[in-house]
Amino acid sequence: MQQYRVKMLIAMQRDGAFVHRNEFLHPRGFMLLDDALEFCSLDMQDKIKSGSYFRAQIYGFDLVRYRNLCTQNMYIAYRVAIQNVNRALIDKDFESLTYI
Predict the structure, then answer these.
(1) What is the DSSP string of 20-44?
(2) Strand ordering across the sheet containing 2-14
(3) How many CB atoms lie within 10 A of CB 57?
(4) Does the CA dihedral 51-57-61-65 come out positive or negative?
(5) DSSP helix/strand/coil, 16
(6) Rounded CA gap, 8 and 24, in Å?
(7) Residue-level pLDDT at 9
(8) What is the DSSP string of 46-70?
C-alpha cells in the first residue's frame, strides 16, 4: 500500500547565509497525491493570510518569514514523499494492541 506524506523543510538564514536546517514529516498520511498537494496549498494560504509569511523569492522554497530587518529569515519548503506501508504489519500490530 502506498501513502503520500508531506515533508516540511525549514531553513534559517542569518546575514545572508543559511545557518540551520531541519526537516519535519507531517504525521498524517494521504492516500491520494491530490490530497497531499491540497494540504500543502491550504497550509501555505493560512500562513500567508496570517500576515507573517510571504512567497519566497529563493528557488526551492515556498514561503519566507522576515525578522530583524531581514537579517534573520525563516524559509519553508513543502515536499510530498511517497511512503510504502506494509498492511500486514499494521494489522498485526493492531491485533497485539487489542489484547493489552
Answers:
(1) EEEEEEEEEEESSHHHHHHHHHHHH
(2) 17-30, 2-14, 72-84, 63-67, 54-55
(3) 8
(4) negative
(5) coil
(6) 5
(7) 94
(8) HHHHTTS-EE--STT-SEEEEETTT
Asked whether 19 and 92 are in contact (CB, 8 A), the reply is no
Cell of 16: 545572508
Under a CB-based contact definition with an 8 Å cutoff, are residues 50 and 19 in contact?
no
- How large a percentage of the chain has pLDDT more than 70? 85
pLDDT band at 86 (very low <50, low <70, confident <90, very high): low
Whole-prediction pTM: 0.76
DSSP character at residue 19: E
- Match 542569518 to its residue by C-alpha cell: 14
Joined together, the cell numbers standing for residue 53 give: 509569511
**CA-to-CA distance for 30 and 4, rounded, in angstroms?**
5
pLDDT value at 63 more than 80: yes
| pLDDT reported for residue 67 | 85
